[in-house]
Structures are given as C-alpha cells and as structure tokens.
Amino acid sequence: MGSIEEAITSITADFAEFDGVLVAFSGGVDSSVVAALANEALGDNAIACTAKSETLPEAELEETRQIAGEIGICHKVVEFSELDSEAFRRNDEERCYHCRTMRLSAMYDVAREQGIKTVCDGTNASDPGNGHRPGLRAVEELNAYSPLLEHDVAKAEVREIAREFDLSVADKPSMACLSSRIPTGLEVTEERLTRIEKAEQILRTWGFEQFRVRDHDGLARIEVASDELEAALDLDFVRTAREHIADLGFDHVTLDLHGYQTGSVSPETNDARIDTPSNEK
C-alpha cells in the first residue's frame, strides 16, 4: 500500500462508484474505518449495520451506537440468534464460518430492505494470514466487499486511518464474539455466553483494556495483556475476581500467567495450557 492519504483517496473513490453500501459494523477499528470511508464518499447512501445476538456483549452494542454517532453515519441494528443453528452450537472448528454466514446473511436482508446491493466488511490485509479464520470463507462465498483487503491496507495502516478521522477506536484492542471464549468442541450455550459476559464486565469495571475470560466448563481462565498482569495480581482484584466470578457459576477462577493470547482456545491451540488454579474458591 502507498501512503495513508492514497489509501483514503482510492477507497473513497471506489465507494463513490456505488449507489449505496451497507457496512457490517461491529464497532471495532476495522469496520469503523470502513464506515467512515463509506460515509465520506456516499453520505446518506451509506449505512452501518450491527448484528445483535447473544454473542455480542451489551457494552459492545452500546459502543457501536457511540462510534456511529462520531462518524455521522446512519446506524441500524438487526437481531438474530446464532444459537438457533445446531452447527454453530456444536462449536467445531467451523464455528466462525457458521457465525459469519448468519451475520452477513442478516446484513444482506437489511440491505435489500434499504434497496442496497453492496454489503461491506472490515477484513483487512493482515487477516488472511493471521491464524485460523474460517469466517473469511463466508465473506468470499457471500461476495461481501472488503475494501481494506482489496486495497492492501494492513492493521497498522487501518489504525492510522482511524486517527486521521479522529475515531475514538483508533487504538481499541481487537475484540471477538463471546463464543470465542469457549474451547472448540464445548457446546455454545446461552448460559455460558451470559456468565462470560458478566465475568468480563467485572474486568472492564476494574479498568482492564485487553482481556478475555475463557470458559473451560466450570473453570474461568482470565487472560490479560502482559502489561496488565501486575494489576491482575493485586490482592483486591484477586478477591473480587474469586468471589464475583465464582458466583456466576464457575467452580474455579484462574489467572493465566502467560497473559492474553489471541485464539488461545481455537483449533490450532486447543491444547492451550491452563495454569494451576491458584485463585480457586
């Protein structure tokens, strides 16, 4: 890719060729940049759409509304449930494929209602070579347009573009749906998703920025970024995590001393280590 300015110019020029676009909008930095560029090029003919389901934390849904407001783009929310799909609940190595297929299909339904033919997503040039990504196959099969990928814009450049647009998510850590906290092969249920969301809300309240609570069927494994490990070892937080997270239905609460790692319960890393549960209740 050339300069940031060239990327912005090229992508907005592409968008200007469309009568309208709908952006699959999660509120992360990638989809926010795509939404900002679409809005820049098309104004009222660009729509950001968020899929609301049990796998999306309520806090993340609220943030999509905030970011859409920053951008000034029309924002719509479509509701559906991945849990209606047995293939998704089974949580095999194709879970993300089933999830992305359902989400994008819901986006196309909204787009048709709005008279829009093109659905865009936030896949960037760093994604295809970044671990196990079956969801990318769904993007290809449903023919969604990925402008960041098409213009070879990698993650670092995406964040630079976000800063150019003064987006508050420019440095937001990567997020993933709540089902990504459940090890491959363990059924995705509403009960597990709910307790994961509540457990992560505790970490969010304590000010942690990059974290996951992995649900190992009764054992909660907390991962935080390496530069936040010291804060996670604070005795006040340890007591809070042990008591409140255990109250959500976990038998044990542990802190992973390896720190946060993307996809640590995905198929490629399903032998993910679980440290001795020193914070047990």
Molecular structure report:
- The protein is α/β, with parallel strands linked by helices.
- The chain is 42% helix and 12% strand.
- It has helices spanning 4-16, 29-42, 58-71, 86-90, 95-113, 135-141, 147-150, 155-164, 190-205, 229-232, 235-246; strands spanning 21-24, 46-52, 74-79, 118-120, 211-215, 219-224, 252-255.
- It has a four-stranded parallel beta sheet, with helices on both faces. It has a three-stranded mixed beta sheet with strand order 5-6-7, covered by helices on one side.
Per-chain topology:
Elements: H1 4-16, E1 21-24, H2 29-42, E2 46-52, H3 58-71, E3 74-79, H4 86-90, H5 95-113, E4 118-120, H6 135-141, H7 147-150, H8 155-164, H9 190-205, E5 211-215, E6 219-224, H10 229-232, H11 235-246, E7 252-255
Parallel strand pairs: 1-2, 1-4, 2-3, 6-7
Antiparallel strand pairs: 5-6
Helix pairs in contact: 1-2, 2-8, 5-6, 9-11
Compose a concise summary of this entry.
The chain has eleven helices and seven strands. It is an alpha/beta fold and 281 residues long.
Tell me the strand percentage band.
Answer: 5-15%
Low-confidence stretches: 270-281
Shape: globular
Biggest β-sheet strands, sense, barrel: 4 strands, parallel
Number of E strands:
7
Helices and strands: which structural class? Answer: alpha/beta
Distance between the termini: 52 Å
Radius of gyration: 19 Å
Helix content: 40-55%
